[in-house]
Automatic annotation (TrEMBL):
The protein's name: Choline transporter-like protein
Gene Ontology cellular component annotations, sorted alphabetically: plasma membrane
Record keywords, A-Z: Glycoprotein, Membrane, Transmembrane, Transmembrane helix
An example Gene Ontology molecular-function term: transmembrane transporter activity
Native species: Globisporangium ultimum (strain ATCC 200006 / CBS 805.95 / DAOM BR144) (Pythium ultimum)
Biased composition range(s): Basic and acidic residues: 36-54
Region (Disordered): 1-90
Membrane topology: Multi-pass membrane protein
Length: 685
């Protein structure tokens, strides 16, 4: 507990936010700032204190916890992260194995094996979907109307079902849908002969016969003449039952737009990264204005498209989707404007910390290559996901039967109808495929974050050169070291951290489903319990996601597996609650605008290019998800660098005696933390 003299008049700080008292400036255990210790001087210093630097010793295969004393020291006392006892700071420094001193070994290898096994199942599912012969038939059904023989009607024509209640699979192509009843419609059809004893039911007649039908009132709906007096036309007409299939099938019609969107995403993300590097503060405020303008214009375009009676007159489902999208986009534009004003101080603070990240990245220039590697892997995963999705939803079989149809003249006819039935069982496997794609994309992005975090930790825990004010790196290429250690040791930890949060989200989705279902059952108790479960699961998911991110950084610093890193991260968070809360969102806020502007720019251009596509919503959603992933891969360099600098700064202070005794932190970083992230009463005490 801090105490202040009565004459000062200053209030005591809260007891739960105590950080260790600073050591005096003459403390022998605190190294002098700005002085570079060579390897020999470092070893001599340790030897004089009775310890030896085992850097590079392969005998110590078992990693010691970062913040625990050595096992062989009987006089050592246990110390927490932010309240070291007498002498615990020196013990903490000796037990610390961060940067290049980290003794790394393979971590969480079991989860890497599970990830590989999951991908084996995804490949088997994809091979099965690729070998289905019904994909071509499915493409005909989702693009245009198809008559009873399986022939596509073509663009601008419709399918009319004369007996949709009894035979929903019998329809023929017409140029105009009849809008009145009792009109004579004459069509040439290949009729089947009437059944006779011992006749072959499968025999076909090649002659065309004129058949007359009495029409009923219809209206155009996409490529079908839908009944005007039936409330649920989609249920009555077989080809309109597969609405999801129509949206998925639209992905196969816009390959050119998807390719162009990939190029736009790459260019805009790389350009934003360049602007962030050379004019960070200006880029943040310019991004705010740009995102607000894009959201406003996008909501305007959607409102115009949804309210214009000329657009999508034959597709009420598409018009309804546009109306929902317009409402969501308008709310997003208003919400972003409110948040921009509310988060203005945090955005200014984030812009200031971008300069510290740029200082570190100026000595780690090879890190700029990492986003392009992630981009290439995301491109492969993106095309794989779309291709397998189309094949999964296109799986099915074409069946034929002899149907008896009621007509006007003659009274009844027999025709052979052909219909396509989707494989609903295989469609359920899309959930397995979607979860694998999410896991893989998060895994790819985590690789770039781990490489960046490891390289930045090596940079931070290097000594300063007083002449050049740069870090004196003991490694020739820290980025190469980070890449090697990531792929050699920590892929298992990446697989675990990438997939640990999603199962909790699925459980929350299940309770949300129960909540929506109980709204129709009028069960107040069940609805309240479902809401409470959703709230608790959301809190647990948020805490788990935050701890996973912090343990991810600890693994990058000292090379331990997920559980020890998560344990240390939890201790660090609880001991530095107020500071960690202040630091938490700085890195995220610094690059969130970049992610939004890259994503919104790509989607806006794609919207103009998708004007001729029948169902552009799902392609637009796929482009939005991909562009956000690419933007994250590029901007995560700055986000991870800022978070790692602040994490290393917190560890640095605690290793060297507490507040104000960071030995490796650059002076500008210390000033920024003291000015913005430390309470005034803690700075003055």
């Amino acid at each position: 507990m801090y105490t202040t003299p009565p004459s000062s008049g200053r209030a005591s700080p809260p007891s739960w936010f105590q950080s260790p008292a600073p050591r005096s400036g003459n403390s022998a255990s605190a190294p002098r700032r700005g002085y570079y210790h060579s390897d020999e001087e470092h070893d001599i210093t340790l030897a004089e204190n009775g310890h030896h630097d085992d850097d590079g010793d392969d005998d110590d295969n078992e990693r010691e916890p970062l913040l625990s004393p050595r096992l062989g020291d009987s006089n050592s006392t246990s110390a927490t992260v932010l309240s070291p006892s007498t002498g615990s700071s020196s013990l903490l420094r000796r037990s610390f194995r961060g940067g290049i001193r980290a003794k790394r070994s393979c971590t969480d290898i079991v989860f890497l094996a599970l990830f590989i096994m999951y991908w084996a199942g995804m490949i088997a599912l994809a091979v099965y979907a690729f070998t289905r012969e019904s994909n071509v038939s499915f493409a005909k059904y989702i693009k245009d109307g198809v008559d009873f023989q399986g022939h596509a009607c073509g663009n601008g024509r419709f399918v009319y079902f004369p007996d949709f209640r009894t035979n929903p699979d019998f329809g023929f192509c017409v140029d105009v849908c009849p809008d009145t009843a009792d009109r004579d419609m004459v069509v040439e059809l290949p009729l089947q002969p009437q059944p006779k004893p011992r006749d072959d039911e499968n025999g076909t007649s090649q002659e065309l016969t004129s058949v007359t039908f009495k029409s009923y009132a219809t209206h155009p709906w996409t490529y079908v003449c839908a009944p005007a007096n039936v409330k649920n036309e989609a249920v009555m007409i077989a080809q309109l039952q597969d609405t999801v299939g129509r949206f998925v099938g639209a992905l196969g019609d816009c390959w050119e737009v998807l390719i162009i969107s990939c190029g736009i995403t790459l260019g805009s993300a790389a350009l934003y990264l360049i602007f962030l590097r050379y004019c960070g503060c200006f880029t943040v405020f310019l991004s705010t204005l740009g995102i607000q303008g894009i959201l406003t214009y996008g909501s305007y375009r959607l409102l115009v498209a949804a309210s214009n009676p000329v657009y999508y007159t034959d597709d009420p489902a598409m018009r309804s989707s546009l109306q929902v999208g317009a409402v969501i986009m308008s709310c997003a534009a208003i919400l972003f404007l409110v948040l921009a004003f509310a988060m203005l101080p945090r955005l200014i603070l984030a812009a200031a910390f971008i300069t510290h990240a740029s200082r570190a990245l100026s000595q780690l220039k090879k890190l700029l290559v990492v986003p392009f590697i992630s981009y290439g892997l995301l491109i492969l995963l993106f095309w794989w996901a779309i291709l397998v999705t189309i094949c999964l939803f296109g799986a099915g079989e074409t069946s034929s039967r002899i149907a008896t149809i009621s007509a006007s003249a003659p009274a009844s006819i027999r025709v052979e109808t052909e219909s396509f039935r989707v494989n609903t069982t295989l469609r359920w496997f899309f959930l397995y495929h979607a979860w694998g794609v999410y896991w893989s994309s998060t895994f790819i992005l985590s690789i770039g974050e781990m490489i960046t975090a490891t390289a930045v930790s090596v940079w931070y825990f290097s000594a300063d050169d007083r002449v050049t004010s740069k870090k004196v790196l003991r490694l020739v290429d820290p980025v190469a070291y980070a890449i090697k250690s990531t792929f050699k040791y920590h892929l298992g930890t990446l697989a675990l951290s990438a997939g640990i949060v999603a199962p909790v989200e699925h459980v929350r989705t299940f309770f949300m489903y129960l909540e929506d279902k109980n709204e129709f059952d009028s069960n107040a108790v069940t609805e309240v319990l479902a809401k409470m479960c959703c709230c608790c699961i959301w809190i647990f998911k948020s805490c788990l996601k935050f701890i996973c991110k912090e343990s991810f950084y600890i693994t990058a610093i000292q090379g331990t597996s997920f559980y020890p890193s998560a344990k240390l991260a939890t201790t660090l968070i609880t001991s530095n609650l107020l500071r960690v809360g202040a630091l938490n969102r700085i890195g995220h806020a610094s690059v969130l605008l970049g992610k939004l502007i890259v994503c919104s720019t790509t989607c806006l251009v794609a919207w103009f290019l998708l004007q001729d596509v029948s169902s552009p919503l799902l392609p637009l959603l796929a482009i939005m998800i991909f562009s956000y992933g690419v933007a994250h891969a590029f901007t995560t360099i700055y986000e991870t660098t800022i978070n790692m600098l602040l994490m290393c700064f917190t560890l640095d202070e605690n290793m060297h005696g507490g507040r104000g005794n960071a030995a490796f932190a650059p002076a500008p970083l210390i000033r920024s933390v003291n000015d913005h992230l430390r309470p005034k009463w803690q700075t003055t005490l």
